[in-house]
Amino acid sequence: MEKLTHQEEEVMLVIWEKGRGIVKDFLEKLPEPRPPYTTVASIVKNLKRKGYLSSEKIGNTYLYTPRISQHEYKGKFLSGIVKSYFSDSYKEMVTFFAHEKKLSEEDLRQIIAMIEQENK
């Protein structure tokens, strides 16, 4: 699957939140200032072309449903970031964020506790 643009990700976040819907539903959930309807419709069509959405024609409109979960998307593209920017090492990524003061000692303790809990 192709990586999403910033605008596509913004619309996709709304679609994941709603579960499914028509373009008007997605437009209403976007933050102000909202893009024009035609822009959102174009983005939704691109998301379908890229394989992120399926559609079902209902009357004169289309009902769109995600084909990939938000969790699957995060996993796929986070692993690409780790590979490209952190020598394919999650340890290096966590170290980077700790050095940048984006993770506190308490955050790291919680991460270790989660890992230990999952390994039991």
UniProtKB/TrEMBL annotation:
Pfam families registered for this protein in UniProt: Penicillinase_R
InterPro entries noted in UniProt: BlaI_family, WH-like_DNA-bd_sf, WH_DNA-bd_sf
This protein's record includes keyword Transcription regulation: yes
The organism's place on the tree of life at top rank: Bacteria
GO BP term, pick one: negative regulation of DNA-templated transcription
Keyword flag Disulfide bond: no
Keywords carried by this UniProt record: DNA-binding, Transcription, Transcription regulation
Entry's Gene Ontology molecular function annotations: DNA binding
UniProt record similarity statement: Belongs to the BlaI transcriptional regulatory family.
Name of the molecule in the record: BlaI/MecI/CopY family transcriptional regulator
